Amino acid sequence: MLKQLADIHPLLPDAGLLLLLIAVALIAYWVAANIFVAALHVVAKKTAHTWDDSFIVFGVGRRLAQMVPAFIIYIGVNWMPILEPGVTEVLLNVTSAYMILVVCFTLTAILSALNHIYESSPVSRQRPMKGFVQLLQIVIIIVSMLLFISALMDRSPVILLSGFGAMTAVLLLVFKDTILSLVASVQLSAQDMVRVGDWIEVPQFGADGDVVDVELHTVKVQNFDKTITTVPTHRLISDSFKNWRGMSESGGRRIKRSLSLDATSVHFLSADEAASCRRFELLTDYLDGKTNELDRYNDARNQTVDQRRLTNIGTFRAYIYCYLKSHEQVRKDMTLLVRQLPSGPEGIPIELYCFTSTTAWSEYEGIQADIFDHLLAIIPEFGLRIYQHPAGSDLARLYPG
């Protein structure tokens, strides 16, 4: 039959054999893709493990099935001595190049599946490996491209590598960001600077939120308004950023806020005012101790005019400290102080510095608001006033009509 086809046209036998070989390869691919791969999917779904599902999601079996037709053609060509040597050589080169690509895509899919399995473990939040996996995938792709070109040209890869030195400068320019990101990824991982789930602030990029992904080239940050900001990985090394992980791990979040008091409302406490302050149970120990201290000081010096006396601002500051010490949601094992800052055009600032017993944002804001609500309401009890700029209602009272 082949001889009869050759009598019609010399290329018909080669074309017939090739069509037959391609038909066999396509049938084998259909069997592999629709029966073998489908069976793997069924087995993976029935197993109690979840790691095997990652290989299904990233299509490892489907990519392996693509190797079957190329392998059949590669073997079948060698079994057909009737084909012209030139045709055989071209088919072998093209088939080899295709199999290299399939192996490349399969290896990258396997690496992605392994990284997906790793990310399902708790340790991945402390040591993200996605950047290293992406770097390895890039290396595999580069090597595969080199072998792919070598297979098509039927030349040794060494010949192509001989000209690699001259291309180094170009490659460094092309892969500059990749090289910088690689170094940054190693430093971020080795020094444990960023993990998935960390709250970071990168003002240069307007990023303020939780890290959702750490890749080779970028770090994705989901801001609190639910927008996504991508930060180049190497910029986290070259520029400064704030990581709030230490606050989360400590279990306490800092309150650092001031109350501005009107300087004209500050005065010494009279005997009646001091007696009135004893109504506050929190101030009993302070007033007793402070009164004894002042009496001893004044008696030792027999001073009458410039005696040391209790002040309303000092008593209020002591009240704030005692109030925070007794507050159930303020940490007692962390820094807790109430201090008076230098007075200025906007009054006398009294700053609270303490830590709440929770780091949850909503709960923290609620605790902070409750503390200042109470202090703002109780300030008049000490004869003090909050300083604020004149409002329209203030001016209306001064100039009625």
TrEMBL record:
InterPro entries to which the protein is assigned, alphabetical: LSM_dom_sf, MscS_beta-dom_sf, MscS_channel_2nd, YbdG
Descriptive protein name: Mechanosensitive ion channel family protein
Domain Mechanosensitive ion channel MscS: 177-245
UniProt keyword Transmembrane present: yes
Ranges annotated as spanning the membrane: 15-43, 64-83, 95-114, 135-152, 158-175
Organism this protein belongs to: Candidatus Litorirhabdus singularis
Domain of life: Bacteria
Pfam family, one: MS_channel_2nd
Alphabetic keyword roster: Membrane, Transmembrane, Transmembrane helix
Location relative to the cell: Membrane
